[in-house]
Each structure stands twice: as structure tokens, then as C-alpha cells.
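Ticket #4471: structure export looks truncated?
Reporter: QA, pipeline team
Priority: medium

Steps to reproduce: submit the single chain below to the structure queue and open the exported record.
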Amino acid sequence: MISQFFVMSQRGDNIVFRDYRGDVQKGSAEIFFRKVKFWKEDGQEEAPPVFNADGVNYFHVKVVGLLFVATTRVNVSPSLVLELLQRIARVIKDYLGVLNEDSLRKNFVLVYELLDEVIDFGYVQSTSTEVLKSYVFNEPIVIDAARLQPLGPASIFMQGTKRMPGTAVTKSVVANEPGGRKREEIFVDIIEKISVTFSSSGYILTSEIDGTIQMKSYLTGNPEIRIALNEDLGIGKGGRSIYDYRSSTGSGAVVLDDCNFHESVRLDSFDTDRTLSLIPPDGEFPVMNYRMTQEFKPPFRINTLIEEAGPLKAEVIIKVSAEFSSSITANTIVVEMPLPKYTTSNIIKFLFTVSNILYKIVGGSEHTLRAKLTFSQETHGNITKESGPVNMTFTIPMYNASRLQVKYLQIAKKSSTYNPYRWVRYVTQANSYVARI
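Actual output as written to the record:
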């Protein structure tokens, strides 16, 4: 049971506010923002997604720089409310096309209509974009996406390639193209977040992939879709199927630990030919979520060396090797390494250009960073033990570490002339990419 829902900017501006029950004080948004901004409890730098203040439970998630918040005085499942907030953000994005502060303010009438249909007197009714289309009648005011700064995982598809148009990122599912026409197209995105920990000698200690097959459909008439995955795909221990242990034997080239599917997916032939059948609902939704801990080749190798150059000086050398095809370019790369508190100054020298090491790296290349450090004499300690680890963040379009592939995307034809656009795209991002020193 939800008492209030509101959306805030990271500056503390209240963009959307809806009070459903009137049992929480009106100043809850200001109380929430002060708590989150100045959170210092239990040694934490950031507020947890769920906390209690003066008898009010606050739940929040951050989506593309906006804070989606719900409050209640009753004891409810935190995971349920957090999932609800994510779904509300997704529904609003489906309707507006672009989810940011400007689009929310310009479409506030539509947003409030959506909120009243999603939640009634604090009780959740529906978060399905397709169901809501029968009750929501306001048209979205389209925001010009060309002048927007791209945010979120899908934004990497907007970066200038003819194979990967970014229209799915910024198009409303209810608004037509100029002239009243609707472009028939469907997008399938395989998004993987990888976590890798390297030892000081470069060996892989832990590795994991959290992936999702995301779909966004702009097809009229809801035709049936068939998605074919790797034929040698294995699921569960030993690569066998988790749905029919009798029908699958041996280990596939791609072995997932586990997976789950959207409620619209039919698995009638999944065990035999690894195809998924579904009639896609309107809006963006995850067709399949999966997890993989089988050993895989990490996209980057990180080697770090610290050399003392005297009693008060040292040099740090970080080498990053891109171990993927030269036809692929990784972007939005950041390499960070915490230094001892007694470091007084550092001079960083890149053996390649700054833009290469911080923003883009081409596959097959190797980059080295050197940093000369100076320490204060009074507090000089063990440099190696008090430095690091090295953390790396990156995004790699058209690459996936698990090797999970969409072999084909088939659409049930209405006629011989019906040929909608199909787009299958891949992206890998760093979730936790750490190299110990």
C-alpha cells in the first residue's frame, strides 16, 4: 500500500508528486532529499534504497539521473515497492519516449493520468503498457531527442552507426510518426553486465555475467515473434536443460547457470531447438534474464606495478590490454586507483592520448598509464598495501562476453509485402571490474 509517489531531480526539485492516502506529511519530499543528500549513518556514503524516518518508510531508485520515490507507513515488501518504481519509470518512458526532467514537466498531465491508473488509493492496479492504453487517452508531447545527452545502457546505440538507429531509445509507443504513419520495427537488445576480479598476478579470481534480452516492439497487430538462440546453449549444471533433464545431454558451448522468462514467452520448443515464441506486449520489456559463472574471456586485462623511486617517491604503471576484435571499439572508459592518504601530489603521463585511455579503446590495442607519486615524510607507509585496487568501467557496443547470440528473429507475416525492420543489438558493460595490486 503506497501513500505517496514523487519524482525528484538530483538538485532536489520536485517534478511530480502524487498523494494517494493523505497519511504522510506533505513535507516528505524535502525530508527525503535532506536524508539522502547528507546520509552518513553506519559509515555509508550513500543512502540505502530503503530507510525509515519518523515512522515513514522511504523507497527510492535512481533512473537516468532522476529519483523515483514511494512512501508508506505500513510494513510492505521492499522488493515489491522497488520493482514497482522501476516499472513505473519504464511505463512513463514507454509513453513519453524520452525520460528526463524536461519531458516529465512538458507531459505532466499525461504522467498524472498514468499514475492514477497504475495506483488507485495506494493499491497497485497495473503496470502493463498494453493494458494502460485502454484507459489513458492523453497524447505525449514529443521532445526533440537530438539535443539530449544520451543516458543509460541503450544510449550507446545512438552513436552514429547506420546499423543501429537510436529511434527505439527515444520513441513513444503510442505516438505516430509525422504525417500519422507508424514505422513497423522491432528492437532486440542483448545487454550484459560483467563482474571480474583479477589477482595481483593477473589470474581471474571471480567472474560472472548478468544478462538480459530486452525487446521493444513497434509492430501493429501484435504478430507472433520467434527468437532463435544458440543451438548448443546449455542451462543448469552440466549444461542440461532446467525444463526437461531427460531431453538435453552434454554441455553446450554457452552454458548459463540459470534464466527466467517474461510471462508472454512460450517455451514449447525451447528444449528441442532453443527458440522462444511470444506475442510481444506494447512497450519495453525483458524477454529473458540470465546469469553465467562459467569461465569466459574477459574483454580487458589489467596489469599494475608500483615501483618505489626513493624514500618519498613512487611510480605507478597501469597497463590495459583490449582482448577483443579490432573491429570493435569500447567507449566511456574510466580507470581509477585509490592512492594512500599521505600522497601529496601526482603527475600522470599517458603513453597514448588522454582521449584513448579515458573514452575509447579499439580492440587489440594496449594502453599504459604512468603516475609519479610524492609522499609526505611524516606518514609514509607501505605503498602497495595501501593503494588500489584498480577499478575499471566501460561500455562495449556490439560485443557480448557470454557468446549468447540471437540466430534469427522471425515475425509471423500478415502478407507477402509485410516486411518490418528488425534490429538485434549487443552491448557489454562493466558491473564490477577490479584488479588487485
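Status: closed, not a bug. The export was complete when the record was re-opened. Leaving a note from the reviewer for reference: The first strand starts at residue 4 and ends at 9.
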